[in-house]
Amino acid sequence: MKDVYLLSGFLGSGKTSLLTDLLRQLKAQGLKPAVIMNEFGKLPFDSQAVDEDIPLKEMLEGCICCSGAEKTEAQIQGLLHGPEFDVLVIETTGAAHPVEALDAVYSPIFADQLHIKGIITVADSKRFLERETLPVQMRSLFLEQIRHAHLLLANKIDLLTDSEAAKVVQDIQQVNPHAFIVQTTHAKVPLNVVERLSATTSQFPVEKAPITSLQLSTRLVTFTTPVEREVFEQWLRALPDTIYRMKGYVWVKGITNPMLFQYAYGMVQWLPEYVKMSPQLVIIGENVNELKVPSI
Ligand SMILES: Nc1nc2c(ncn2[C@@H]2O[C@H](COP(=O)(O)OP(=O)(O)OP(=O)(O)O)[C@@H](O)[C@H]2O)c(=O)[nH]1
């Protein structure tokens, strides 16, 4: 039987960070992982986090729970017919309801081959503290992802004071009294904690709160000319708080290769890129098509 882990969590919470670290730890244990990545948006940006020797299937458009169980089944079939692997890690989009994603993975076809260990939800601790500021449907999804987890990572703990960190754990435990909670930075959790999952997972939760029509949309933008970094950062500071996530490569004036850029909940990360990547950025949020982007 191959163990299956489902990674859940709101946009930008740290799922890819968790995936990367889990893959590293699995390989260090001599295990062969395989990955299914479900990206919200057209750019397979996060798949660069997965080494080329790891079997990978990507579902770019839509989300694993809405695109139908058939598509997910086909991806799993594809993996099962490919090179040998021991553990399957599935990263869902930040917009996925974890129980629906789990439903899509459960299939009688693989019942004797896959052992579904459970849902690991990564929660952005800072965002959790400020959850009241989220639009109601987003907040509902955010809490559902926490409520249905079997293991919870209270991530980005480095951004909180000690008393805030203690409050986050206490409050998260109230939302989900059954899951084991680990405070993390960059979603680093020891593999043995993750592997204990099935021991604590007696049954999967089935009820779920209704989440009606989330207004999330995505937009892929391509820079046609370089942008001044200062102008771009000014634009970031003025963004409405309904823009949840951006990732991609920004063509910055005076810098040879487009820079790796990440934005999650007001936090910005720039990294130099040594390869010339296409200057494209995925924006995820509400009404993203109406947003004016510098140099586009
Ligand atoms: N300060 C801080 N930043 C973090 C931490 N974990 C992740 N990040 C940053 O948060 C951003 C999003 O991290 P990802 O791991 O890509 O999050 P994700 O959940 O996969 O994002 P989506 O797939 O877009 O939903 C990146 O810029 C990370 O470097 C953390 O513990 N502390």
Please provide a written account of the structure.
This protein is an alpha/beta fold and 296 residues long. The chain folds into 2 domains: 2-200, Rossmann fold, CATH 3.40.50; 216-290, Hypothetical Protein Yjia, Chain: A,domain 2, CATH 3.30.1220. The protein has 9 helices and 12 strands. The longest helix is centred in the first third of the chain and has 14 residues, at 15-28. The protein starts with a strand and ends in a 10-residue tail after the last strand. Residues 9, 11-17, 46, 94, 155-156, 158-159, 185-187, 245, 247, 262, 264, 269 line the site of guanosine-5'-triphosphate (GTP). Guanosine-5'-triphosphate binds next to helix 1, strand 9 and strand 10.
Q: State the name of the first-level CATH class of the largest domain.
A: Alpha Beta
What integer is the average pLDDT? 85
Radius of gyration: 19 Å
Unreliable segments (pLDDT under 50, ≥5 consecutive)?
A: 199-206
Question: CATH fold name of the largest domain, please?
Answer: Rossmann fold
Q: What is the CATH homology-level superfamily of the largest domain?
A: P-loop containing nucleotide triphosphate hydrolases
DSSP helix count?
9
State the separation between the terminal residues, measured CA to CA: 49 Å
- By helix and strand content, what is the structural category? alpha/beta
Tell me, what's the shape?
globular
The largest sheet, given as strand count, sense and whether it forms a barrel, is: 7 strands, parallel
How big a fraction of the residues is strand?
25-35%
Helix proportion of residues, in percent? 25-40%
CATH architecture of the largest domain: 3-Layer(aba) Sandwich
Q: Work out the count of structural domains.
A: 2
Strand order of the largest sheet: 3-2-4-1-5-6-7
How many strands in all? 12
Bound molecules: guanosine-5'-triphosphate
Q: N-to-C SSE series?
A: EHEEHEHEHHEHEHHEHEEEE
